[in-house]
Amino acid sequence: MIGRARAAAVVAAAAVMAAALLPAGASAARGDMVGGRFSDCFWNYGAFGVRDFNIAYPDAGATYWAAGFRRPPGSKLTLRGRYPHARYMALQTYDVLGRGVDALADYQIDPLPGSTNPFRRGADRSTRKRGYRVTVVDSKNPGYPLEAYDGEPDRNRIYVIPEAGPITETADGQTYELNLLMMRVYVPDDGADLTGGVGLPKPTLRLADGTVLRGQSLCDAVDSESKALGHTRVPDPGALLISADSYRAMRYPNELAAPVNVFAGLMSVPRQVPPWFPAVRGGEWRAQYDRRYLLQLWTGDHAPGAVPDPPPRSASGGFFPNVHNAYVRTAINRKLGKVAVFRGRLPSAPRTLHGDARMGAGQVRYTSFCMNQAPVTTKVTDCAFDEQVPTNRRRTYTIVVSRAADRPASARHACGKAWIRWSKAGDGYEDPDFGWFQVRNMLPSRSFRHAIQLTSTPGDEKDVMGPYLPRLTYYDGPAAFRRSPFGGCGSAR
């Protein structure tokens, strides 16, 4: 076990990172993250989502809650809940810097005797008996992969100790292990609340002497509400951002009088860029790897003459990834056209929104398309997920992105098109015309050979995804789109 000094160093490093990256004038007090909808004394942080603490590019269909707690020596923690009426649910654990430790997807969790897991193929989704129990295991992940695929082994245990060993703190003369657990729910059935109509799992703590704690007494024992002065249970959300100065250096490199070291670890050198930078007319799709590679959309992939290091792609990159997802993104800009249109093939997925009787199968569990601001805010502005995106018989979709004033009359579901709002906030800084368009795949079937998860080298997105990678076309406005082959009502071919 690592001691108090190392724990303090790690927490201090996180604090320094947060302070360095927090935008000027922004406030990201941890107290702002508690007391959200459906939170309680254990699930104390959240709800996080597009309407609640919008940070780290949440999907508009997703909500999540976090529990940060210290483990009394020799104690055993279990979670008992009911499977939500929703598309997806998962429990995931992290270290204090947001690197994945373990992940447990809904279908993996065996139900209690007499109950049904409604996330398994063909299961009764409306079953009344839908209970489960998960044990939070005080040890390292024994080798379960942090992979974003369907078909991983069933288990009712989730592991909390990082590969490098536990983080600890000392209080009241005892040494405690610090753990971080997140609960996610995507797309509750129509009419269900954010938790999928079942609330959040309830914890039970058995102390080393056999005492069983629940409710507030449990929360006091694990200090999940961070009542001790100066103690924190989750990192500052400011650590997810980059500073306004760093972003300006990336976005407007022509202004630089000298190189500036940005968070990506690269040197941004003065150069001339077009007004719509970093967008390009045909789009430049980039799968998600690590944070450095993400920011290289602005800084460039490597310095002139240098050989770029291949970016890592794993849950070790930090910033609390949902390891069941993978992403591709491209920057767009209204200076290239007020209406941006994306066309591609939509992977098949279960249909759950209106409470389908049986759990279906598909090439993926979920696909969504989102418009985001720049990393200076990490906000999502609007999304459409698979059941909101009409397709033709070949599962080809047409997604129109524009401001409300520029929305074509045919950009509606009844005309075979989805519409996503282009926010007037743009990048969230000074460019109101910027947009960051993102495609998300969740839990693909291993037989689906075009999943984003199968991209492995920057630049292979088209080869891997084929027709499932969207094609981007700009139009000057609604009239120009109306004259296009796909601009009429019902003309999605």
Overview of the structural elements:
With about 500 residues, the protein is mostly beta strands. The chain folds into 2 domains: about 5-240, no CATH class; about 250-480, no CATH class. The chain is about 10% helix and about 30% strand. The chain has helices at about 5-20, 215-220, 245-250, 290-300, 460-465, 480, and strands at about 45-50, 60-70, 75-80, 85-95, 100-105, 130-140, 155-160, 165-170, 175-190, 200-205, 210-215, 260, 265-270, 285, 325-335, 340-345, 365-370, 380-385, 395-400, 420, 435-440, 470-475. Strand 8 and strand 9 (about 175-190) form a beta hairpin. The longest helix is centred in the N-terminal third of the chain and has 18 residues, at about 5-20. It is globular and about 75 Å long. The N and C termini lie far apart (about 60 Å).
